[in-house]
Amino acid sequence: MQASTLTLEVRVSNMVAQNLYLKYGFQPVGTRKRYYTDNNEDALIMFTDPIQSLGYQTLLKELRQQLFHRLRDQVHQAGITAHVSSC
Ligand SMILES: CC(C)(COP(=O)(O)OP(=O)(O)OC[C@H]1O[C@@H](n2cnc3c(N)ncnc32)[C@H](O)[C@@H]1OP(=O)(O)O)[C@@H](O)C(=O)NCCC(=O)NCCS
Fold first, then answer.
1. For this structure, is 41 an active site residue?
2. Which end of the chain is more exposed for a tag (fewer CB within 10 A), N or C?
3. What is the pTM of this model?
4. Is 90 exceeded by the pLDDT of residue 87?
C-alpha cells in the first residue's frame, strides 16, 4: 500500500499493548489528552521509523520468524494437526 510509517494510539495504562508495540518498533512521540471518552484516559501516540527501511524490514523478518516458531511449538505441544506457513 506504499505506506511509509505506521502510527497508533494506545491507553497510557495499557502496558501490555505498549510493550507489544515497542517490540514491533513503535516509539512514543506524544499524548492525546482525554482521548478515550469512557474514562477520559489519555492516549499515548506511537510511530514507527520508515517501514520500508532495511532496519525495520530486518526487525519485522526476525519477529515473523520468532512468531512462526512459537506458533509451531504451540501446535506441536497441543498435538494439533495444522499447517502453519512461515510466509
Ligand atoms: C495486546 C494483546 C493483543 C497482546 O496479546 P498477547 O497474546 O499477550 O501477545 P503475546 O503473548 O504474543 O505477547 C506479545 C508482546 O506483548 C507484550 N506482553 C504480553 N504480555 C505482557 C504482560 N503481561 N506484561 C507486559 N508485556 C506483555 C510483550 O512485549 C510481548 O512480547 P514478548 O513475549 O516478546 O515479551 C492482548 O493483551 C490483548 O488482546 N489485549 C486486549 C486488547 C488490547 O489491549 N488491544 C490494544 C488496544 S490499543
1. no
2. N
3. 0.87
4. no
